[in-house]
Amino acid sequence: MAELVSPVTRQVSTEKWKAGTPIVDINLKDVEDCLIYDRRGVSFLFKSLYQDSKSVIIFVRNFLCYSCKEYVDDLSKVPRGALEEAGIRLVVIGQSTHQHIEPFCLLTGYSHEMYVDPERSIYLKLGMKREETFTDSALPSPHVKSGLFMGQIKSIWRAMTSPAFDFQGDLHQQGGAIIAGPGSQVHFCHFDMNRLDHMPITWLLQLAGVQQSLDFSPKPKIMH
Question: In this structure, which of 13, 15, 178, 214 has its CB flanked by the most CB atoms within 10 Å?
Fold first, then answer.
């Protein structure tokens, strides 16, 4: 019997990506034995994240990136109960050393799972982009509030005031999002073209099966 492989998935993230979007062909068997590390430096096989349950796995550029920081700010607002009700794990993976996980979680208020791939093995084997591509049709991420200039100033300031002065990952590496599991099945895959090309969180969670509606708008709510 021929070996079953993960299906080819279409890279889409919202209306603007539905037409003319390239096919992203990934096979998780290529990366299932890659090591990831938790905040204590303990290693795990990548496949442990999705082997027994469906997982939303988000790869970020680097922990100093202002757009990644603001994206994870909003990920921190996802209620744990909504994930548990849907039987879904929410995971963020960075590409720094494990010592940067705890400070980044404290900075963003993120309390879900976070790991690092310091060698960028998974990023490279899955074919995530390095360098940025911008197009006229691209819309800015709804989760990034800072402009380019102020965002970079914030990133530089955080680098200068960090106890360990480093860039916390390859500055040119782009991230992405995958919905996978149980097993090696890939339900959805999106690779970022640039620092603003994030999957809108609400849309990503809905694809994964979360029923609860989430509002990440910074506008004040009117209570009736």
Answer: 178
